[in-house]
Amino acid sequence: MGDVSFAVEARDTRGKGAARELRRNGMVPAVVYGGGREATAIQIDSAKFERMLETSHAGVNTLIDLEGSEAGGKTVIAKELQREAVRGKLIHVDFYEVDLSTKIEVSVPIRLTGTPEGVVLGGVLDQQMRDVTLMCLPNTIPDSVDIDVSGMELGDSLHVSDLGVADGVDIATESELTVATVLIPRGLRDSANADGDESGDEGADDASGEGDEGGEG
To answer: Model-level pTM?
Structure first.
């Protein structure tokens, strides 16, 4: 059983012209595939679907029980959303029928919590990876993968291998990939180098002075 129910309608027309007509009427074409059955063509109310995704805690990973048409009774996940390149308007949806007893591959957002110690010292937290791919049962998909970064120092990096997930959930993304780094700003690095050079000069002066005094004795 899914998280929400959503009504869909059968779609008998095909082609770009038919798709444009649907969109003019506030609908978008969609298909349901998976479950070892032939794909089913349907149409959905675009605004209602967008609203459902916005209000659901799971977002695009929401488990949906379809109602109506020949796709009714299927539990699906929105596997692919096609949008216009400029306005981002929804133009097509691929729904994948899930088996609640079989693991599926999903993309889940990574959420960094806390303020790194390196940021307090002037560094910048650069999150290079926003999502991670998981393999898990449909009803155990986490809303996000959270990790506390408060212990990260200047120059530290966080990798996929550092992420933690619940038992029964597997991370499919390559473990060595970098999730985030605490960057050292150029000004801070230059300042540290300058301080190091000054310390070295003082050490050299001290050593020279001691040698001169020893010669006079």
So the answer is: 0.79
